[in-house]
Amino acid sequence: MRFHRALPLSAPARVSVVVPCYRYGRYLHDVVASALDQPGLDVDVLVVDDASPDDSAAIAHAIAEEEPRVRVVVNDPNLGHIATYNRGIAEVTGDYVVLLSADDLLTPGSLTRSVALMQAHPSVGLAYGYPLEFRGQPPTTRSGPATWITWPGHEWLHVFCRRGRNLVFNPEVVLRREVMAELGAYDPALPHGADMDLWMRTALHWDVGRVVGPEQGLYRQHDDNMHVESFGGVLDDLVGRRLVFDRVLLVSARDVVAPPERRRLHATAYRALAREAVDLAIRTVDGGHPEAAVRCKQYLAFAEETWPAVRHGRAWQAAVGRLGGGSSALRARAGETARQVRDSARWRVWRRLGV
């Protein structure tokens, strides 16, 4: 990992922003405006409406009539989110490509900062930054000076596996179009982890960069995208991440990573997933959920299936003890306090370094 002083754009550049939309017409004016507010860049926007049953397509066409930099395509019939992403990516021609959900936003100049990083470091295939989460009205964002971080792709991939989770939100990611040409776009076989798969496959062949300082994107939290917060969503996410690690480390990495290293990375990722599942089991019981015992058992089953040795750890014993009624209110409060301290420390590192 290396820190760099941020530099201005070294040359004009074209950036294509793909905006997949399904029933999010009410957000389109704001998201398109945010994508076009990027000084020094030639930005075009392609809205891909996935056969929305409401007036989303009509709103998109109305925007395109007023703004020549915006185009619209409408799926017929509905293709689902991965196919919609890939259709849009296949139709754009910019030097750099951004996939921006219709309910999210870019911050002013965010693409300019990312493209400047990638121009200065031609080996970087993916650049990202800090996305600020919000509800309701978009918040005011910072516009101070930025610095850059770059990682060799293999180094970033190692961190990714140690964390066992997706380190990158989607609103702020910029990819070189060559990445898509070389690696393909989003994998339809990974509905719960296609973005994570693409980031990891990119790191197998390219370096990774991050803009530090100003917020680079705004990620909207609302009921329609909160499915992963539910129990079923969290469990699906764990299973989806495990499948991504399998496909990337056991298949995609075969020609670029030596077998012993692939096995080490795979084992590292599996340990991280298992430990996270055990931690979720403990949190579920301590949180007093009505179906805590059932949920706890499912998390523990996932953990044991993923990494059987997890049964020998203290966290596993704590989870099993809670299932047996051995958890007190005092212990639950102490455990939650410790987790909050740990989570806060991890968040500060991620906020600063992106890993």
From TrEMBL:
GO terms for molecular function: transferase activity. Keywords: Transferase. Residues 16-155 form the Glycosyltransferase 2-like domain. InterPro entries: Glyco_trans_2-like, Glycosyltransf_2, Nucleotide-diphossugar_trans. PANTHER family: GLYCOSYLTRANSFERASE, GLYCOSYLTRANSFERASE 2-LIKE DOMAIN-CONTAINING PROTEIN. This is Glycosyl transferase family 2.
